[in-house]
Amino acid sequence: MQENVNISDITTMRIGGKARYVAEIEDIADLEEAMEFAREKGLSTFTLGSGANTIGRDEGFDGVVLLCKIRGFEIIRQTSKEITVRVGGGEVLDDIVRILCERGYTGMEGLTSIPGTMGAAPVQNVGAYGQEISQILERVECYDMRARGRREFSKDDCKMAYRKSIFNHGADAGRYFITHVVVKLKKGQMKPPFYTSLQKYIEENNITSYSPESIRFCVAQVRETKMPDLRFEPSAGSFFKNIYLSDKEAESARAKGIEVWREDGQNIIPSGWLIQNAGLSGRTFYGVRVSEKAALILINDGARGYSDLARARERIVWAVEKRFGYRLKQEPVEMGFPDKESEKI
């Protein structure tokens, strides 16, 4: 248990005041001890993985941050065609993607190079390049911090949608500490056509193999050209959610020259496209820079704190809404405010 820890030191956006306490959780016993500590002192708790999708506020967090460090990779079932594995919530997501791709299993290669832990993946139903964790999820094992006991949720129980689940929305947001995630993958490969940037890389480099390992390599190369190196350019990852439209709304948007994707029967406007075409790429507001490589990414380029980030965010939201009529919603959660979106803050 550490006291008065800078939130800026445990989140990748590198802003935020102090957390009163931070506890590293390696097993259920650690968690129960930390929860008892919090109850005795009348403090709230906040669960954190790698800090890649979390924003700290200037006032800090007057509670106990629970850092998930639970490890483990266990094969539950394996056949010639599929595998089911149980993974500790503190394992690095990209490490698990690599292990399963190397063994020839498809379902996670699109998640390559996404920063974060395995336990964080179901919280926002992490996804990229046409794959989401919900597509391979079997169950989530948790500790119910309100009822003080273990619980399991099936994929249906998690009520997963785009960047959404029971873990980050609604009355139970922040209630469950994810200890393990069970996923089921099959032997096979993704099928073209792929997302635009991935398809372009494959064509330009004459890639003919679509095996999980091959696609993992391609995704890593594409993401390297877009994503900042968090060691030198602090960022929370994708900062805004994409816009989802009905068929009628999509038809209207296309008529106005707006890029609309069609995926799994849904119409999507990439928020990065809106930001870029609002003329914001590369611009800096209050020390926060809109990435030149991927406008969806906001980089802390000298922001003095959350107040600067909030002002930059609203400037970007305003500019996009004025230009296109769509209001962007923030993707990263805020410490102590797990289910709030930018327009409500």
Structure description:
The protein is 24% helix and 28% strand. It has helices at residues 28-41, 93-102, 196-204, 212-226, 247-255, 271-277, 306-324, and strands at residues 2-6, 18-25, 44-48, 54-55, 61-68, 73-78, 82-88, 105-106, 127-128, 131-132, 137-144, 149-154, 176-187, 235-238, 243-245, 261-263, 266-269, 284-285, 288-290, 297-300, 333-334. Strands 6, 7, 8, 11, 12 and 13 form a six-stranded antiparallel beta sheet that branches. Helix 3 crosses helix 4 (212-226). The longest helix has 19 residues, at 306-324.
Descriptive terms for the model:
7 helices; 4-stranded mixed beta sheet; 6-stranded antiparallel beta sheet; 345 residues; disordered C terminus; globular; alpha+beta
| CA-based shape | globular
H/E element sequence = EEHEEEEEHEEEEEEHHEEHEEHEEEHE
Largest β-sheet summary: 6 strands, antiparallel
Share of residues in strands:
25-35%
SS-derived structural category: alpha+beta
Tell me the total number of β-strands. 21
The percent range for helix content is 10-25%
Instruction: Catalogue the unreliable spans.
Output: 340-345
What gyration radius follows from the Cα positions, in whole Å? 20 Å
Distance N terminus to C terminus? 31 Å
Taking all residues together, what is the mean pLDDT? Answer: 93
Number of helices: 7
